[in-house]
Amino acid sequence: MVHIKDSYLNILVCKMAVYLNPCLSLPINLAENEFEDLIQKLKDWTIMHGGGMRSKKQYSNDSLTVVPFTLLPSVFPRSEFQKAVSIQPALNELTHYVSNDHAFLYSCLEKTIEVDEFTRNLFNLYETVRSEGFAQSRCLGLLRSDYLLDVCNSSSVKQVELNTIASSFGGLTSTAPTHRFFFQQMGLLDKLKMLPENKALQGLCSGIIKAWELFNDKDSVILIIIENQSMNVCDQRFHEFEIARQKPELNVIRKNLTQIANEAKLSDTKDLIVQGKKVAVVYFRAGYTPDHYHSEAEWSARLMIERSKAIKCPNIQYHLAGTKKVQQALATPGMLERFIKDTKKSTDIRKMFTGLYALDLNEDGDKAVKMALDCPERFVLKPQREGGGNNLYGEDIRHKLTSCMNSKERSAWILMDKINPPVQQNYLIRPNQDFKKNSSLCDVVSELGIFGIILCDGDNILINEQVGHMMRSKLTSCNEGGVHAGDGVLDSPFLIDDCPMKIK
Questions:
Q1: Cα–Cα distance measured from residue 227 to residue 361, given in angstroms and rounded to the nearest whole number
Q2: Residue 169, phi-psi category: left (phi > 0), alpha (psi -120 to 50), beta (remainder)
Q3: How much is the pTM?
Q4: Would you call 161 a catalytic residue per the annotation?
Q5: Which of 158, 472, 481, 492 is catalytic?
């Protein structure tokens, strides 16, 4: 017999001596074959409702595999969830103001661009279009701020990072709510209210449509920039299909940067033309990692887009505003107030920050390096990269910093205090999994992402909203948590009001 009641009780007892009320216990015991049938039903339901990805091992444009997910939703304090939701418009606003402050961006990245070729290429692109004069004053941001609960700080949410380009999984998490179906199958209808409503996809797509409407050309199209092989195709396509549902007359074109280099052109009036159509909005789902730029052709394509009148999501300024060096600089005392004049807003944002340290070749940088070398398990070492699989932990921090101790290379990294989230137990459901052999509970930690949209015309903020959320979990033994990268799995927050988390 599989005692789900006992399993759920275990889930609510964290390994770091964090205690939660047994609000999720299930008064149901299932025979082993019934449990296996339930898992298969959940996998079928998930993939048939869009919860799919391309297989990395056997990639095919004609097949999907189920996106990995947790069997059970993860407990999360309602008050901290609401705190992250309520602060998102202020973070949207902060991103916009930062992106338009050239002096600040340069001060943050001047040392990084000396040693990091990718960031240098992005910054040079930014300087090029800035010196020419930006062709488009309007910009769209589809942002995602990621958080972990920190049991060392009263179980409050602490920001891991702010994503300003290709912020993903708004589609999958709102179109395939597997945990709602699970509760329905278990007869736990009273628990559905603990799963917060999530309309991330609708909200994100409404932002794209409003940008298209602002462009004011009914014959124009939306261009989505994708990778050469889109593993996360369902999440991307759901945006395209939701746009079609909300605005049937609006056409969407998908191209990678190589195709743009070969097929697109810039008119004399700086209109971006693709397939004979004028592009109103460019939505980047690629372009955030060096792997997406195979040659100078892809960089030329990115420059063409930035030079155009198309509304970019994000434009190059927003892209740079999401770098780790900018995140670290904003955490320094007094810096937030440069952009956020409202004292309450700046105070609330600062409470979300954890310790962030520059590693420049100066006295402060030397102190940060010494902290990391003395106690590497307390920190995370981060480069200027997105997409998962880039950060260093533990002894890898010591090895990396030792190798670049007196080199400018260390300036391209930042040091962040390691956040200590509560550990819960869960079943991780993956494709091609033999559940008879691999059905044990795993220790996992969960990361919450909050989506926001901001649409601006110069200094005029036209739309500024929080529009949804996502959650992903990973094994405690795994440092990275990207679902696309293969380490994390999709999850849902189970909100409870009484969440007395503490360390023994």
A1: 36
A2: left
A3: 0.92
A4: yes
A5: 472
Please name the residues in contact with 103: beta carbons below 8 A apart, sequence gap of 6 or more: none
Q: Which are the contacts of 152, defined by CB distance < 8 A and separation ≥ 6?
A: 420, 503
**Catalytic pick from 278, 382, 400, 410?**
382
The pair phi, psi for residue 264, each rounded to 5°, is -90, 160
Whether the predicted pLDDT of 479 surpasses 90 = no
Catalytic residue among 355, 365, 387, 394: 387
pLDDT at 216: 97
Strand, helix or coil at 228? coil
Reply yes or no on whether 382 is catalytic: yes
Active site residue 377: no
Of 378, 465, 450, nearest to 147 by C-alpha is 450
To the query of whether residue 163 is one of the catalytic residues in this protein, the response is yes
**Cα(18)–Cα(499) distance, rounded to whole angstroms?**
9
Name the token pair of 503.
């360390």
The rounded Cα 501 to chain-centroid distance in angstroms is: 26
| Other beta carbons less than 10 A from residue 372's beta carbon | 23
**What's the chain's average pLDDT?**
89
**Number of Cα atoms under 13 Å in the Cβ half of residue 58:** 6
Please state, in angstroms and as integers, the Cα–Cα distance from residue 364 to each residue in 206, 246, 357, following that order. Answer: 44, 52, 8
Residue corresponding to tokens 């402050």 = 101
Burial class (CB within 10 angstroms; exposed 0-12, middle 13-18, buried 19+) of 289: middle
pLDDT in tens, 131-167: 999 999 999 999 999 999 999 877 899 999 999 999 9
What would the two tokens of residue 472 be? Answer: 């992903």
446 is catalytic: no
Q: CA–CA separation, 490 vs 472, rounded Å? A: 4
Place of tokens 């930062």: 98
Instruction: Tell me, yes or no, if 242 is annotated catalytic.
Output: no
Helices (H), ranges, 100-177: 102-109, 112-115, 117-132, 170-175
Alpha helices per DSSP H over 387-447: 395-403
Spatial distance between the Cα atoms of 8 and 336, rounded to a whole number of angstroms: 42
Look-up: residue for tokens 């997105």?
386
What's the rounded Cα separation, in Å, for the pair 310 and 247? Answer: 19
Active site residue 324: yes
> Binding site: which residues?
144, 161, 163, 236, 324, 382-391, 393, 416-419, 447, 472, 474, 480
